[in-house]
Design a protein that fits this description.
It is a single chain. The chain is mostly helical. It is built from three helices and two strands. It has one domain (about 5-75): Fe(II) trafficking protein YggX (YggX-like, Orthogonal Bundle). It has helices at about 25-35, 35-55, 60-75; strands at about 5, 10-15. A two-stranded antiparallel sheet has the order 1-2. A hairpin with a 4-residue loop joins β1 and β2 (about 10-15). α2 crosses α3 (about 60-75). The chain is globular. Could be a mediator in iron transactions between iron acquisition and iron-requiring processes, such as synthesis and/or repair of Fe-S clusters in biosynthetic enzymes. Necessary to maintain high levels of aconitase under oxidative stress. InterPro entries: Fe_traffick_prot_YggX, Fe_traffick_prot_YggX_sf.
């Protein structure tokens, strides 16, 4: 049985995540307010960000950068700016 959330990123009702994928308060906020679709979009952006900036997820400073970008992307409607990345023309 899938659950539905009002996705803050997509601004529409959509399938919610099956379980909390991120720890702590932020993880709960994501679980309650972000859809599977928006989370999948973020995962792609996160991978690009990690590769672009050569981030190491074991480094607390690097994790902080990722978390800040994640909040901006998921909750503030901002896109992730990747240096040198040009999105394909729609």
């Amino acid at each position: 049985m899938s659950r539905t959330v009002f996705c803050q990123r997509l601004q529409k009702e959509a399938d919610g995540l099956d379980f909390q994928l991120y720890p702590g308060e932020l993880g709960k906020r994501i679980y309650d307010n972000i859809s599977k679709e928006a989370w999948a979009e973020w995962q792609k952006k996160q991978t690009m960000l990690i590769n672009e900036k050569k981030l190491n997820m074991m480094d607390p400073e690097h994790r902080k950068v990722i978390e800040e970008e994640m909040v901006k992307f998921l909750f503030e409607g901002q896109d992730v700016h990747i240096d040198g990345y040009v999105p394909p023309e729609a």
